[in-house]
Amino acid sequence: HKPSLPDGREAVIVFLEALLERFPNRTFTIHRVISSDDLVAVHYHSRATPEDLGFAVVDIFRVENCQMVEHWDVVQPVPAHSENDNTMF
């Protein structure tokens, strides 16, 4: 369901390899994992470098026979300033 990627396992591998090659120190800090029936949601903070504000991400996977068969994501930049005391995480 990611419009910028073709379907299939190989497309995901190529995408992730290129991302990690471009940003070898990228971190993914998981804050929540939620599951219901065949769906799993992962809420995490992705940063290219320690100084980077990064992105708040929620990946949603549909799982079938222990394999991810569908994927959706919501990605939002972490702002430098917030109008409230709530965090993105």
Gist?
By secondary structure, the protein is of the alpha+beta class. The protein has one helix spanning 9-22; strands at 27-36, 39-47, 55-64, 67-77.
Please specify the SSE layout and strand pairing:
Layout lengths: L8 H14 L4 E10 L2 E9 L7 E10 L2 E11 L12
Antiparallel strand pairs: 1-2, 2-3, 3-4
Describe this structure in words.
It is a single chain. The chain is of the alpha+beta class. The protein has a four-stranded antiparallel beta sheet with strand order 1-2-3-4, with no helix packed on it. β2 and β3 form a beta hairpin. The two termini are 24 Å apart. The model has no long low-confidence stretch (mean pLDDT 94).
Features:
89 residues, four-stranded antiparallel β-sheet, globular
- Helix/strand/pairing category: alpha+beta
Query: Spatial order of the strands in the main sheet?
Result: 1-2-3-4
Mean pLDDT: 94
How much is the radius of gyration in Å?
A: 15 Å
The fraction of residues in strands falls at 35-45%
How much helix is in the residues?
10-25%
User: Would you list the SSEs in sequence order as H and E?
Assistant: HEEEE
Assembly state: single chain
Overall outline: globular
Regions with pLDDT < 50 over 5+ consecutive residues?
A: none
C-alpha end-to-end distance: 24 Å
Main beta sheet, described? 4 strands, antiparallel
Count of helix runs: 1
Number of strands: 4
